[in-house]
Amino acid sequence: MKHTGFPAALVALTIAACSPASETDTETAAAPAADTGTSHTESMTSAAISEADLRHRISTLADDSFEGRAPATPGGIAASQWIADEMARIGLEPGYEGSYFQPVSLLAVTLDAEQSSFDIAFNGEPLGFNMSEDVVYWSKLNSSDISLDASELVFVGYGVVAPEYGWNDYEGLDVEGRTVVMLVNDPGYANPDSGLFNGNAMTYYGRWTYKYEEAARQGAAGVILIHQTAPASYGWNVVSGSWSGTQLDLAREPGEGTFANVESWITEPRARELFDLAGLDFDALTAAAAEPGFEAVPMTGLTASGYLVNSAETLDSRNVVGVVPGTARPDEYVLYTAHWDHIGIRDVPAGEDGIYNGAVDNATGTAAILEIGEAFVANPPERSVMILAVTAEESGLLGSAYYGENPIVPYGQTVGGINIDAILPSGRSRDVVVVGHGASELEDVLTEAAAEQDRYIVPDPNPEAGYFYRSDHISLAKQGVPMLYADGGFDLRDGGREAGEAMGEDYRANRYHGPADEYSEDWNMEGMVEDTTLFFNVGSRLANSDDWPNWYEGNEFRALRDAQLTE
Q1: 94: enclosing H helix or E strand
Q2: For residue 302, what are the β-bridge partners?
Q3: CB contact at 8 A, 479 and 404
Q4: Secondary structure of residue 156 in the 3-state scheme
């Protein structure tokens, strides 16, 4: 599709209301029968989880009219309004103080690259680190100018403090005013058979977000992450593309939040150079960092200095939230999440497509939770069900992070949740992939529901990539709430695993985060209908029971949940 301009009328688009389907007995409520018909009228959807409804909602959200649904843009405002109007039309109650909108203020920070600088010196002599080529740096401090002055470097291994794994890379170390240098991922990745952490499967401690946060808590003035493609699961091009230009974060007052002055990535070749200059063996130390008892090592003679000039602007966005009240225990909530936002519009040469429509990512997930919400209106549950469409996922899970810090429902009243992010339009699959497999008792519920569809559960085939920590459910998991992140698998009933893997690879290579992620009438919707039905069934089991699922013993979020359940 090409950019055709934004129709002003769509900003105020409201679909005519219709009455919800008749209520059914909550004790016997099951998934509405799947409807694979394709006819649809704009003013009416059905309580059944249907192909027609999903097509309508996906094609609407992925239309050029919403200009790629970037937060705080006319297209993003209109898209979130359309979602709220859909919630009202299908009978969801407003979920936030009488409104469908939970306001989310974002801070857009732009580094002035011409006036800013960052370099590492050896014995006072700058080494000449070039932005994008050798290093990418920024600051999350809400300040127009930030300094880092000859800050001593110290290698802290993986930069992890994990009491449940008996690990503390900062033990006995004072990093106040210093710049910490660390590896990406966690010790389990380097020693998958050692029993450390979760083996080859990344834990939350392996995520770059955690590492920056922990370094700031320890008092570090600067943070340097060493990029390595395999443990990061992406190349340097992703780093240089994602962390340059305007960066979004939650809006905070100056002085609020815990951040180091400067956060950065450097390439592995430049990191090896630094270790050599400091008289350190890079390979030996990185191996040692993955062993119990590792102690931080000063990088003698090396200092980091920088001066960052930022401009900042506060932007207004919003999460969209609707509720189906419970009939028996309305103060207990089952949560469904999906992000409504995408990348928006990019400047491109004349005649090229600059709209990033985000049809799969994540018009599909947003359509699915609306479909599920409509089904619950027709099948009122004993517990309440919250449908939460969050903003700014593509900018760092910011909408869900805001909810995580400002929950509408106390966590002690939140039973658990299901996150839906990017359902591929493949056919029906025999398997269901659980991202972050082995995390919580929600997987037991999923296993039972999948068996009723003659399907089986499989772990994420790339656990070392840490996909469990890259979507919105992690913002709730970090607060202790068990969250399930699953998707249709690759073992397709028509074509088998080869066809499923080929489809997934084609999407990643040719459409993911690109203008080609568009809706098509040629999509095979059978798998999407089946998966949406499955996620409804899982939530229905939770919403019509008195169970309180927990994380499995040994999970990094178990202690938080234990505390919630005893309050």
Answers
A1: strand 93-94
A2: 122
A3: yes
A4: coil
For 467, the token pair is 């996909």
CA atoms lying within 13 Å on the CB side of residue 530:
24
The number of angstroms, rounded, from the C-alpha of 106 to the middle of its chain's C-alpha atoms is: 16
Output the DSSP codes for 380-392.
--SEEEEEEEES-
Residue at token pair 């499955």:
534
What's the token pair of residue 545?
């029971």
Smallest CA-to-CA distance from 43 within 75, 11, 14 is with 14
Q: Which long-range contacts (CB under 8 A, 24 or more apart) does 278-284 make?
A: 278/122, 278/153, 278/302, 280/155
For the chain, report the end-to-end CA distance as a whole number of angstroms. Answer: 53
Interatomic CA distance for residues 10 and 177, integer angstroms: 51
- Pair of tokens at residue 486: 């699953």
State the DSSP H helix or E strand holding residue 88, giving kind and residue range, or none if neither. helix 74-90
**β-bridge partners, 385:** 324, 334
Per-residue pLDDT of the chain (567 residues; tens, 9 = 90+): 333 332 222 222 222 223 333 333 323 334 454 443 434 444 579 999 999 999 999 999 999 999 999 999 999 999 999 999 999 999 999 999 999 999 999 988 889 989 999 999 999 999 999 999 999 999 988 888 899 999 999 999 999 999 989 999 999 999 999 999 999 999 999 988 888 898 888 888 998 989 999 999 999 999 999 999 999 888 898 788 777 777 888 997 766 678 899 999 999 999 999 999 999 999 999 999 999 999 999 999 999 999 999 998 999 999 999 999 999 999 999 999 999 999 898 877 888 888 999 999 999 999 999 999 999 999 999 999 999 999 999 888 999 999 999 999 999 999 999 999 999 999 999 999 999 999 999 999 999 999 999 999 999 888 877 788 889 999 999 999 999 999 999 999 999 999 999 998 899 888 888 889 999 999 999 999 999 999 999 999 999 999 999 999 988 899 999 999 987
Residue 238: how many CB atoms within 10 A of its CB?
14
For 110-140, the DSSP string reads EE-TTT-EEEEEETTEE--PPBTTTEEEE--
The H or E element that residue 433 is part of is: strand 431-434
Contact 260, 212 (CB under 8 A): yes
**Are 122 and 301 spatial neighbours (Cβ–Cβ below 8 Å)?**
yes
The residue written with tokens 């857009």 in the block is: 108
Question: Helices in 255-358 by DSSP H: which ranges?
Answer: 268-277, 282-288
Residue 342 neighbours by CB under 8 Å, 6+ apart: 68, 69, 70, 356, 357, 358, 361, 362, 363, 394
SS3 443: helix
Cα dihedral 210, 216, 217, 220 in deg (nearest 10)? 130
Burial class of residue 161, CB neighbours in 10 A (0-12, 13-18, 19+): middle
pTM of the shown model: 0.80
Would you tell me how many other CB atoms lie within 10 Å of the CB of residue 355? 26
At position 416, the amino acid (one-letter code) is G
Q: Which of 124, 129, 118 is nearest to 273 (CA)?
A: 129
Tell me the backbone φ, ψ of residue 353, rounded to 5 degrees.
Answer: -85, 120
What is the maximum span of the chain, computed from C-alpha positions, in angstroms? 76
